[in-house]
Amino acid sequence: MGGHSHDHDMPLQEFRRHTGAITLIVIGARPAPKSVDSILEIANAAHFHEEESFVARSDNGSIEYVPCSLSEHPILQLISEGRLQYKIIVSGSPYGDLPYLAPGTYYNWIEFVEGPDHDEGRWVARIVSEEGAVASVVTGVEVKQIFAFHLDDATLAEHKKPSVHVHGIGIGEVSDNFPTARWASSTSGWAPMGNGCCRVVSCQPER
C-alpha cells in the first residue's frame, strides 16, 4: 500500500524506506487466535490514555480513537498472541461509508495469521464491539518499525507517548483525489535507541 507510509510528524524528505525483508521463521504450533471473549477480557483490564485520543468529527457525529498503553516487546506480542491497539467510540453516524460502525464502543485487535500451508502470513485486525460481536475484519494491515535518529528532547517525549491518528492516502494534491480513503495509524511500542528512538507502528485501512 503506497503513499501513506511516511511518519506524519517528520519532514517527508528525511525518510528512507528500506524494503529489504527480515525473514521470520516460526517453529512449532502457534497459539490459536484469541476468542472474542478473551479480547473483551483483555480490553476490560487495559489502561486507555484518554489524554492522547484522536477525534474525527463530521456534521452527523464523531469517532474517538483512544490508544492503550504501549508494550515492551510489541512485535513479539503481535506475532505470538495478538495485541489490543485502541478503543473506538462512535457517536451518531459520522461516516456514511462505514455502516458497520453503529453508535457504540469497539476494540481494535491486531494479530498475525498464517496461511493454510504455513508458508505465508498476514497481519489482520478485528474490530470487536463491547457486546461481543465482530463488526469488521481488516486484512490490509501494515506493521512497521520506525527508527528515528538525532531527535531533540521534545520530539523524543512526544514519540514515547501512546498515539493513534487517522490520515488519508498521499500528500498535497494527490490526497484530494481520494477524499474517502482513510488509514488509522497507532503506536504499539517505543524504545530509546542511541541518539533517537524506535517505534512499532500499525496502519490499517478504514474501508
From TrEMBL:
It comes from the Bacteria. This is Uncharacterized protein. It comes from Streptomyces calvus.
